[in-house]
Amino acid sequence: MKYFIEGYFDSVSNSLGSVNAEYVHRLANEIVRVWQRRGTIYIMGNGGSASTATHFACDLSKLTIAGGRQRVKAVSLTDNAAIVTAWANDSHYEDIFIQQLIPFLEPRDLVIAISASGNSRNVVKALEYAVEAGSATASLSGFQGGAVSRMTDYPIVTRSDNMQVIEDSHSLLCHGLALEVCHLMERMETDYPMVVGNGGIV
């Protein structure tokens, strides 16, 4: 007898198996480059993906701390309930992310969208602004990738038609990305060990 949960685990495994590992590696490298140029990583998503955005920003900010290394600047655009609800109430829900980016986004930054469907209008609108601003963009989506997979520099798609499977796959991907970023930083420091006191690489 096979239990339901075993089939679910198989579905998550299959979804992760559909991911192009090279694309994940490229995104990890871009995150490191943003860190090197002291840019900021902005992460966004709706519903369960909002929680994943918060978790990913936490891991990128804290998991990567080591010695005198400069800190990674990662911000989840889902975390300020006051600003999110203000824009949703006074303007449109589709403006909740773009309006947070407008005062701060710079070309050296990276905007990451987490969207199971890949078609959430507030996410797409913010990405459109990021492209216009000259920032790097990335996306984690499911199903067939959606609009975000066609408009971002670093699209990662977990192939599944199950929302929970996609969201779990994205959570695991974010853990893997954060750990790979740590690995790349450590390797860089081994190859180029000269680090100034404030963590800036010489």
> What separation lies between the terminal Cα atoms?
60 Å
Describe the biggest sheet? 5 strands, parallel
The shape is globular
Helix percent reads 40-55%
Strand content bin: 5-15%
**Which H/E pattern describes the elements?**
HHEHEHHEHEHEH
Count of DSSP H/I helices: 8
Radius of gyration: 17 Å
Strand tally is 5
Major sheet: arrangement of strands: 2-1-3-4-5
Instruction: Point out poorly predicted stretches.
Output: 194-202
Q: Which structural class do you get from the secondary structure elements?
A: alpha/beta
Average pLDDT, all residues: 94
Written account of the structure:
There is one protein chain. With 202 residues, the protein is of the alpha/beta class. The protein is 53% helix and 13% strand. It is built from eight helices and five strands. The protein has helices spanning 4-17, 21-36, 48-63, 81-90, 98-101, 121-133, 146-151, 163-191, and strands at 40-45, 73-76, 110-115, 136-141, 154-157. The chain has a five-stranded parallel β-sheet, sandwiched between helices. Helix 3 links the parallel strand 1 and strand 2. The longest helix has 29 residues, at 163-191.
